[in-house]
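Team,

Forwarding the record for the chain on the shared tracking sheet. I've put the sequence and predicted structure together so nobody has to dig through attachments.
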Amino acid sequence: MSKSERPSQLFRNLNAKVASIPMIFTALVIFVGGTLWTVLYSFTNSKLLPRLHVVGLDQYYRLWATPRWLISIENLLIYGVLSLVFSLVIGFLLAALLDQKIRFEDTFRTIFLYPFALSFIVTGLVWQWLLNPEFGVQAVVRSLGWTSFSFNPLYDSSIVIYGILIAALWQGTGLIMCLMLAGLRGIDEDIWKAARVDGIPTWKTYLFIIIPMMRPVFITTLVIVASNIVRVYDLVVAQTSGGPGIASEVPAKYVYDYMFFAQNLGQGFAASTMMLLSVIIVIVPWAYLEFGGKKRV
């Protein structure tokens, strides 16, 4: 077929391109359009209803001068770093143990994954009961004779974020374990045999051979965990409602409260824009290193 008879690039895979129009429309209008609209109105003094009365950076100055917002950012950093580290470490260790072809593997995998089937609200309520000092873990341990035992993180403003972290790890670690286990099962068995022949210890095989080969799995897991960290809201509402006081506030709850309870859309839009900016700061360098920084052969 001559070049003149070949269809142009525009008309190749036409059916697939037509089928993707609704998705493209949704992405452009709903996501991109909604994001730009939110950023625009974050520079206004909108209250109950949006109005285009620009006040510059006033909402942002007010945002960063609010103690409640500063506490929510501090809590998100603590929760995010610890959640990322512990979920990856615990998930990988559980996957490595299950990868040893143990008996009742399916049963253990189901047990570990089952909490992920529960909603964050249910998980939060369950752990609110478990961490309640009157009839939770503290009461059970004291009934066994250790009367001085104290474990009530949800009622201590200095450690309340760690009580929320416990519930989040219990709910989400099973999924991380399954992703890691799938990655381990994708490793060629010959690599393990070669490592044994060379006398390489198991921990070194994992650390210097297996983990680098599982880089795509770790990236996928990192994206999933990071998305859950940024939008953490349900657990906080179910366990503490932001208390004691404002000790367990998080940015997502700050945005929701200002938009729907305080009726201050401008402040809520400014807070949500800062959340978007934090995501962009993380994603753009990663995307450049992952895709743009590679030398094309």
